[in-house]
Amino acid sequence: MSRQEMGKETMTVFSPQLAARFDALVEKYPVRRSALVPMLLYAQDEVGYVSDAVIAEVAERIGITELEVRNVATYYSMLRFKPGGKFNVQVCTNISCMLRGAYELFERFQEELGVGHKGVTADGVFSLEEVECIGACCWAPAIQVNYDFHDELAPDSVPSILAEYRGKAAGQGVTPHA
Amino acid sequence: MADVTFTVDGKKLAAPAGTLLIDACRKAGIEIPAFCYYPGLSLQAACRMCVVRQEKVGKLQTACTTAVAEGQVFITESDEIAQARKATLQLLLGNHPLDCPVCDAGGECELQDMTFKYGAGESLYTEAKHHRDEQQWSPAVFYDRPRCILCYRCVRMCGEGMDVWALGIQNRGSSSVIAPNNGNQLDCEQCGMCIDVCPVGALTSGSYRYKTRPWEMKHVSTVCTHCADGCKVTLGIRQSNDGSEIVRADNRDKSGINNDFLCAKGRFGFDFVENPERLNRPLVRNAQGELEPATWDHALRFAAAKLREIRDARGGSSIGVIGSNTTTNEENYLLQKFARVVLQTNNIDHTRTADYAAFAAALEGQTEKTASLRDTESAPAILLVGGNPTEEHPLLAWNLRTNVRLNKARLYVANNRPIKLERQARAALRLNAEDYAKLPALLESGASDLAKAVLGEESILLIFGQEYRGKDLASLVAWGLRRGNVRFACLGDHANSRGAADMGLLPDRLPGFVSCRDAGPFATEYAGMPTDSGMAQPEMFAAAAKGELGALLVVGANPAAEFGLDRTKLGSTFTIVQDIFQTETAALADVVFPAASLYEKTGTVTNTYGDVQLVLKGADRAGVKSDFEILVRLAGAMGVDVKTLVPFGKRAVTADLGQSRGAQAGEADRHAVWLAANDLEPKLSPFDPLAVLDEIERLVPGYRLDRLSLFGGNDVPTEPGFVAVTALTGQDLVAPAHDGLFTSGTLSRYSPALQDLKRHQTPAPAEAAAD
Amino acid sequence: MPRLVSHPDEVKIVTSRFGKGAADIDRYVEMGGYAAARKCLEQGPDWIINEMKASNLRGRGGAGFPTGMKWSFVPKQSAKPKYVLVNGDESEPGTCKDHLIFLHDPHAVIEGAMIAGIAIGAKVGFIYLRGEYRYLLEIMEKAVADAYAKGFLGKNIFGSDTEFQVITQSGAGAYEVGEESALMESLEGKRGVPRIKPPFPAVVGLYGGPTVINNAETIATVPHVITMGGPAYAAVGTERNGGTRLFGLSGHVERPGVYELPMGYNLKKMIYEVGGGVRGGRKLKAVVPGGSSTPVLLPEEIETLGMDFDQVGKAGSMLGSGGVVVLDDQTCIVEFALRTISFYQHESCGWCIPCREGTDWLKKSLTRFHAGFGVEKDIDNIQYLAQNMLGRTFCPLGDAAAMPTLGFVKKFRKEFEDHLNGKPCPFAKHVDLAVV
Fold it and tell me: Distance (Å, rounded) from C-alpha C95 to C-alpha C321?
C-alpha cells in the first residue's frame, strides 16, 4: 500500500513541511528511487542523523527495502547514523587546505571544543569532523559549519566562528538531539 | 547468433558473437581464474583476476566482460598476466587473515588455489590487518568479514538467484561489508546458497563449521531425502564410533539435476540421521505389553512366524501393508511383491500426496508428454497452476526463476492465493479454489490476459499442483492434449512418492499402474497373487477397528499420526513397523525394526517429474538395516525361497571380478559403473537392491532406463504408464503434505537444524511499540 | 563568500558574468543570456554539433574528451528517453571552479544543458551538485524556477514546440560519484559505484537511455561557444585545445584564486605572474598541475610548459581538472603523498580489489613511513603496489591514486629515503595525521 492510499494521517518521523516536500520529491523523477540520496540528506538535516526510523520511513516512501536504503545510505560520507551536534564543524584538511594550515586550524577547533574527529560536545551544540576536499581550495583553509562555508581562515578565526554559532544555538534554545 | 572465430593462446575458437570470453574459454577447456564471475549472475568485473591480453588493446582486459568478436586475438596466460594476477592476490592477502589451518574453506578455497597457482607466497606488507568480529546471522549462516574478498557472489545469488534480496553491501572502500537484512540477523529462506557460492571461508555453515577438514571426509553424491524435486546432494562422510557419520551436505560437484541449487532442507536437514533418538535395535513387545530390545534373529523369527500364522489361518486378505514415500524404488517394488506374492494380499497402500494414478491414466497411450524437471529450466513458456513451488518445490522455483531471468521464459501463474513466483510471472490469474476444475474452459475462453497469452504460446509446459486429482486432473491433461504441444508435470511431496505410486504401492495397481485384475506379465511373474483390489489405508484401519485385520506391516510411514490411530483402534492387529525413529506408529507396534535412512542405502528414487536417480549409501550406522534387507530377511524367515523375490545370482557371471581393474580408485569406480550399466555386475547377494532394478526394468512399463547415465550419477527420465488405467479408485485419497522450507513430514521433527531454522524464521509475536 | 580574483592575462569568457549579478535571470538576459539557446532552437542539432566540434572544446572534468564528438555519439533514434546530465559533483582536491559557476552564473549551466538537450534530442536535463554545495544548489534551484517562470524551461521552451525540463539533484558526499556512470547510479538512488563499459552512457546511460554527461564548466562554456561561434572560440586556445580554462591556483601561491586563461598558457607564468609567485618569496618545490590525481611536476619541468591537455600529457602528467596546487620548499613530499593517498583511500568505492586494497595499503604504508618507521624495501613496495594498481582497476579512481604516488616516489626518492629508519620528518609540523 502506498502512502497516498494510507491517507494523510500516516505516522511520519518528519515535520509536515518536510513530509510534504518528500511527497513531491518522489514524484519529481522518472523513478521514485532517484529521490533516495537527497531525501536521506534532507532527513538528516531535520532529524540530526539517519536514524532507524528515518530509514524505515524513507524505504516505505520509495517502495524499497530497508536493507536497500542502508546499502545506499552507508555509501555516502555526509550521512551519519548517530546524532551529531546542532552545528557540525567540518574542517577540510585535504592538500590545498593542508598547505595553508588546515591541520593547525583543526587542532585549534579540537582545543576549543574539547572533542576530536567525529566528537560531539557535551551540550550537543557542536560536532567536529575532519573532512575531505569541500571545493574551496582557492580560498584555503576552509571549513563548513553545516552547509555554511567559512574560508581563508587562520587558527585565530576559530573563537569568533564558534561564538557566532553558539549565539545562534542560544537564540534557538537548542537542546541536544536525542 | 552466428558464430565468430577468434584466437585464444594460439588456438582458433568459435562461439556465437557476443559470448563472454570467459565462457567461450571455459567451454574450450581454457580455464580463466575469477572470483567475482559466476555463471548466470550479473557481471561485476570487480576482482580483476580474469585479466587477459587482447591484441592491439592497451590495457589488460577482463575476460568476464569481453564479448568475443570476429578475428580477435587473446593471450590468457603469460608472464605479464601471471604477474598481474599475482599482484591482485598479494593485495587481497594483505588484509586476508592467514587462518587457513582452522578455516572451514581450507582445502576448498578458491583464494588458496589461486595463491598456490600464482605463487603469491611472499608477504610484502607489515601493516596490521583490519579486524572485525565474526557474526552469526542465523543458525545456518556465519559471516567472517576479514576473510571476505567482496566478490559479491553471495549478494547476487541471494538477490538474482533466489529472489530473496536479503544480503546487501554497506559502507565503502576497505570498510565495505556484506550485511544481512534484519539488523545483524538474516531473515530469508536460509537456503545456504550464499555459503555455497562463497569462494573463501567468509560465509560458513552453522552445521559444519569447525567440525572437520575437507580431506578427512569421503564425498558421496546421492539424492536428497526431503522434497519431491530430488536434488543431488553430496554428503561429507567421516568415520565415527558407530559407523560413519554425515558431517556436511552440500552441492559440491554441481553435476546433478539441481545444477547450482540446494535448499535449506537438502543442505542442513541431514542431521536427523545423527539424532540420538534413532532406533538402533529391534524391539519386540513382551508379555507385559512393553517394547523391549531384541536381537535381529529373534525379532525376525517372531514377526515372520506371526505373519505366516495369520496368513495361513485367516488368509492374505486379513493382512495390510503400508509403504513409504521416502524408501527406494527397489524397496517399494520388493514390498509390494512381498505383499502380493508372499503375504497373498492386495491390501497395500501408501499416503498419496498426488494423484499419480490419475495422471498416468490421463496420459494413456501418450509418449513424451511428461516433462522432466530439466525441462523447467529451458521451456520457453510455462503455465503453473496451483501449488507453491517456492515453499514446496524449491528447485522447481529456482529453475523457473532462472529460466525467466536468463532465457526470458514466459511464466504464467494461476492460483487461488498469491504466491511468490508471481514476481517472475508474465501474467497471473487469481482463481477460486473451486474454479480449478474450470481452468480448461477459462483458458479456452481467452477472457483473461493469462488465457490470451497462453493460447498464443507455441508450446507450453503445464505444471500443476495437488489441487488437481481424479477427474479434474484428467480434464486438465485432456485440454493440454487437445491443444497440442503441451508437456505436463504433476507435483507431489516427498523424495519418492512418485516412485511409490510407480512401483505399485496401491491396492488396485501393480507396478507401472498395471491393473491387478488384468495383470499382464505379472500374472505369471507373481504366480498365485490375488487379483481383486485390496483395501486402501482408511479401509484397513476400519477393518482393524472391527478386528478384521490380522496383521499390519508398516514400512517408513507414520499412519498413527496421520489417521489418529491408537492401540484400541488397531485392536488385536499384529503390527510390524520398520522405521528410523520411534514414531507414533512404531510406539503401537508389536515388532519394530530399526531401518536405515535414505542416506544409508543404495537404490533408485523417482522425483515427482518421473526422473530416476541413483541413491548411494553414504553414512552407515551400527544396528540398522535397509528396508530392503529387512524385507528379504523377513521373507526368508517365513520360509520363502528369497530367489523368487530377488533374482540374485541368476546370471552366469561373465565379467571379471576385479582382476582387470586398475590400481587407481577412480579407474575402479568407472569400471564398476560400466559393469553395472551393462548388467554385468554380479549380484551375488539377496540384499543387493540392484538385482531388483533389473526386474523393475523388465516388468515396469516406462522404466526403460539409460543405465550408463543412471550409474554415472545422472537423472534419467521415465514415462508414467502407457497401460490402460481404467478403474480408478473412486475415493480421493490424496493428502498433500504441504511441507514448507523447513519441514519434511516426520523427518524434520528429528532434525535440530531444521527446527532451529524454523524457529529463527518464525516471527516472534508482535511486540507493543517500544517507542 | 569566495573571493574573486583578476589578472590582465585573463580572457574572460566563462567568467565574463562573474560578480555581475547574473544569478538574477533578468540580469542574465540583459547580458545576452539565453540568446544562444534561442539561436540553437532555430539552427537545429546538426548545426550545434558542428559548432561544438569546431570549437575544440574538450571536457573540463579532467579527461579532456572532445565535447562535440561526445554529443555526436548519441543515437538520433532511441526507444528510451534521452538525457542531459550536468556533472557538478566537483570533488577533485585542488578544484573549486564549478563552485564559482554555480554561484555567479547558474543560468549559463541551465542554458548549456538546454543547448545540449536540443543537440541530442533530450527533453530532460539533470544538474547534479555535490551534497556539500547546498547553498549553490539553492541558487541553482532558484535559477531553474525562474527559468520555468519565464517559460524558458518546460513543455514549450521560448514558446517553441521543443520541450526541456531541468531537475536538480544533490549528492551526499562521494568523490567517486564524479565518475560519469557512478553519477548515474547515484542519481538512480543507488550506491555510487561505476558501471561496466561498454555500453557507454551515450548509448545506455541514465535510466537506460542515451545520455550526454558533461562537467559543469563544459556545459557553462557551451552558450559562449554558440555566441562566439565554434571557430572563434577555438582560436582562443591552442591546436586541438579550444578556448579558455578555469585554472584554480591554490596552495603556496601568493594570490590563489580561479583564473580564466587561454588554453596553453605557460604554467610558470601562471604561478609567478598570475598567482604572484610562491608565497612568502619561498622557492618552488613542485606543482600538481591538474588536481590531486595528476602526477607532480618539478620546477624544471614547467619552464616552457603550456597548460593544455596535450602538452601536459607529453610532460608526463595531466591537465585534469585545472586545479594547480603549488608546493613550496618547506613542504614534506611524504606527508603530501600520504594526504593525497588518504583521500583516495577514503573515497575508493570498494568495488574492485586493486583500488580497494591498494589505496588502503598505500595509506597504511605511507602513514608508517611518514612516522619514521619505514625501511628501504618499503619504497620499492610502494612503487610496486602503485604500479600494480595502474590500469588494473575497474574505474579511473585506482589510476588517480596510483599515478601521483608513483610520481612522488620517482621524483622525490631522496626525500623518501630521508624518512627511513626512524629519522624524523625533516619538515615535521605535527606528529601524526588525524585519520579521516
Answer: 7
